[in-house]
Amino acid sequence: QVQLVESGGGLVQPGGSLRLSCAASGRTFSNSIVGWFRQAPGKEREFVARINFIYGHTNIADSVKGRFTISRDNAENTVYLQMNSLKPEDTAVYYCAADRRFPMTKDAYWGQGTQVTVSS
Asked: Is-contact 8 22, C-beta < 8 A?
């Protein structure tokens, strides 16, 4: 059984930065696509970024492009989401997910989410 644990969320002022982590236990991320998604209150979950854990290829949503980057640490079996120049509209619960393909299928593993609040 794979468990994904997100961390790094919190309260930050507009223009600030946060780095989210997604750590896997029970199995490595090898041969996986790892993605970050977010869901704001009253809105549908939306894609933020993804990375191919073996090759490092990335894809970033247009809404955060130029501000967010996704990376991975193979040795630590962890994927990061670096969020800079945060805006109030980035406020959401952020989830990571892992699957063998993208878009994520029903067999994807999901973390429990971490809250990010951008407010002055």
From this structure: no
